[in-house]
Design goal:
447 residues; five-stranded antiparallel sheet; single chain; 9 helices; alpha+beta; Heat Shock Protein 90; five-stranded mixed sheet; 17% strand
Length: 447
């Protein structure tokens, strides 16, 4: 897989090279400047010391030094006194002359450009009846500084190239753990057992990345596993109603006579079962998204339970079951009316199916310290511990149940969306207590 983004190793390599060039280039420029100024100060000291010596010799009547030729560390001089011919050192006429009018008459050395284009240091010193001029040719220093500068910059460029190579090696080595992470995660296949990456085997800076990848891969493997299970279970659950529907339709076709409404009963029942199953599956798939919106409304707990009782009143009478509500007025909670009604209907439907004829089902609402609880109490045979522990799992049905095993998982999903919990417990006198608990101040209001 190719990418148009620049290589991270190349970016780090260029970064190393540019950093080295900036640091070494700045150092080279500072060294060049420091050498130039150091030599300039040294030449100024020589010029001023020589001027002081010449002025002292002239003042004491000594003969001025008359050296045969110029030396780099010495300045050539010229002396102009009123009424006397100009005198100068032997090498003075051979030097390119400086722009003397622009040189201050202060007895201090100044860097000037000589008439011939070379670098020089000039000094003018006032004397009784005239002035003393000194001129030092610094062309040899310019050549020395130029050679030093070339050497310095060549060394800087070589050091930059070395830094680029070292930067590439360091970057490649430093990114090795990322390559290992990519290789190990690429080897993960659906259905294979997941082995988490060992954070201790990677640098400390990659620890968070390793933990994040482990969590993401674990969730992905779990989702794939659940999808495989759901696919196989869904195929099994759909097979039975489809077979019933096909058998009913084949029977109707083979009769070759007018079909009565009663004969369509089994087919309609199979269609209803398929529709209920598909709607439940779609609900669970949609509510698995944590961003699913909940339409919050303030509900009166007693009114909600009364509406549920009214809905199931006919079914309860058919089974000779007493269905009642015990809820004090003034208990309110914030919830999605449609979702909460669906959850209650699933629980009450299970309670009525489990309660024998002549039994009783009670719908309760109770305030708690940290919220509110809705309970559905039945007088059925109760649930074995193993069955109760797994009853919230999808496709898991209790003994004698005609459902598809998705009712209680839907209840759990709805309660989770509301920040609540759903539990099943045996009642001391027999039967089961299903509790829909809502915690937090949002779910409880007293008036």
């Amino acid at each position: 897989m190719t990418s148009n983004a620049p290589s991270l190793i190349r970016q780090l390599q260029v970064g190393f090279a540019v950093t080295a060039l900036l640091i070494l280039g700045t150092f080279a420029a500072l060294m060049d400047r420091a050498l130039h100024r150091s030599m300039e100060r040294e030449d100024a000291q020589v010029l001023e010391a020589q001027a002081a010596y010449l002025a002292q010799a002239l003042g004491s009547g000594k003969a001025l030094p008359h050296e045969p030729g110029s030396r780099p560390e010495k300045a050539e001089w010229s002396l102009s006194l009123a009424g006397q011919p100009e005198r100068h050192s032997p090498g003075y006429p051979q030097l390119p002359q400086a722009p003397w009018p622009s040189v201050p008459l202060d007895g201090r050395a100044h860097e000037v450009d000589s008439m011939g284009g070379g670098e020089a240091s000039a000094l003018r010193k006032a004397l009784p009846g005239g002035e003393l001029r000194l001129l030092m040719d610094r062309s040899h220093e310019a050549a020395l500084v130029g050679s030093f500068r070339r050497t310095l910059w060549v060394g800087t460029l070589l050091a930059t190239a070395v830094a680029a190579l070292l930067g590439r090696l360091v970057a490649a080595r430093g990114l090795g753990p990322l390559r290992r992470i990519a290789e190990e995660t690429a080897s993960v296949r659906p259905g294979d057992p997941f082995h988490p990456l060992e954070a201790a085997q990677f640098p400390e800076e990659l620890g968070q990345l390793v933990h994040t990848l482990n969590g993401a891969l674990a969730r992905l493997q779990e989702a794939i596993h659940r999808l495989d299970e759901m696919g196989s279970e869904l195929a099994h659950e759909l097979r039975t109603p489809l077979q019933h529907l096909r058998s009913s339709l084949e029977d109707l076709v083979l009769r070759r006579e007018t079909v009565s409404p009663q004969a369509l009963g089994p087919s309609l029942e199979a269609c209803d079962r398929l529709q209920s199953l598909i709607e439940s599956i779609l609900f669970l798939a949609r509510r698995a998204d944590p961003t699913a919106s909940v339409k919050w409304q303030e509900l009166e707990a007693a009114d909600l339970l009364e509406e549920t009782r009214d809905f199931f009143e006919g079914l309860a009478e058919e089974g000779d079951i007493s269905l009642s509500v015990e809820a004090p007025p003034g208990l309110r909670l914030a919830a999605d009316p449609a979702l909460l009604t669906r959850a209650l209907h699933n629980v009450v439907s299970n309670a009525l199916a489990a309660t024998p004829r002549g039994g009783r089902v009670v719908l309760e609402a109770e305030a708690q310290d940290d919220g509110l609880a809705l309970r559905v109490l039945d007088e059925g045979p109760g649930l074995p511990p193993g069955v109760r522990a797994a009853l919230g799992d999808r496709w898991n049905r209790g003994q004698g149940s005609r459902g598809h095993g998705l009712g209680l998982p839907i209840v759990q999903s709805i309660l989770a969306l509301h920040g609540g919990t759903f539990t099943l417990a045996d009642r001391p006198g027999g039967g089961t207590a299903a509790t829909l608990a809502f915690t937090g101040h949002r779910h409880l209001k007293k008036v």
